[in-house]
Amino acid sequence: FIARTSTKTNLLTGEETVRVVRGELALEFPSGAGAPRWLLLAGRGDNVFLLWEDGTLWRCDTRDFQAMQVAEKTDLLKEDELRVTAASFLIGRNSLAVGDSSGGLTVWFRVKPPEAGTADGSLIAPAHVLAAEGSPVRALAPSGRGRMLAAGYDDGSARLFHVTSGRLLAH
């Protein structure tokens, strides 16, 4: 289930009123898939992302708590033998960075093509391919102020990227 809490303060009395709205979305995961490894809440709370290590991503539309639904199911990895090893939203929580077992690092975000065919008219699309270094990505640390992303790799190395330009800033 998911809940949204809002607080209103009466300017004359100072009395606070708390309102809680709840919704629930029952999901049946694919046989043998198990539970997702990552559960990520988008910045406006309008989408919840469920991500499995095999690259399967379910994007749930949570705009209306009384009518939540799985809006999109997709695969983020091109090759079956690859595994997602790290995932994190960038600042704003709308761009999703995903690292994989080959050292690949891709940033995804929602687009609204006319042929989307989803309840909310959006699809998740790769926006930036930052690296394919050979050593698995183990950790991601987005900047809290800008469009930078640090990635830590299994071989002990770290890299700092500027996401928008795709530039490697430091290694």
Which features characterize this protein?
171 residues, mainly beta, four-stranded antiparallel sheet, 14 strands, 51% strand
Describe the structure.
- With about 170 residues, the protein is mostly beta strands.
- The chain contains no helices and 14 strands.
- The chain has strands at about 1-10, 15-25, 40, 45-50, 55-60, 70-75, 85-90, 95-100, 105-110, 125-130, 135-140, 150-155, 160, 165-170.
- The strands form four sheets. A four-stranded antiparallel β-sheet has the order 3-4-5-6, with no helix packed on it. A four-stranded antiparallel β-sheet has the order 7-8-9-10, with no helix packed on it.
- A hairpin with a 4-residue loop joins strand 12 (about 150-155) and strand 13 (about 160).
- The mean pLDDT is about 90.
What is the strand content? over 45%
| Major pleated sheet | 4 strands, antiparallel
Structural class label: mainly beta
What is the percent of helical residues? under 10%
Principal-axes geometry comes out as: globular
Question: Could you give the count of β-strands?
Answer: 14
Secondary-structure element pattern, one letter each: EEEEEEEEEEEEEE
Parts with pLDDT < 50 across at least 5 consecutive residues: none
Q: Strand order within the widest sheet?
A: 3-4-5-6
Overall pLDDT, averaged?
A: 91
**Measured distance between first and last alpha carbons:** 41 Å
Number of helices: 0
* Assembly state of the chains shown: single chain
Gyration radius, to the nearest Å? 18 Å
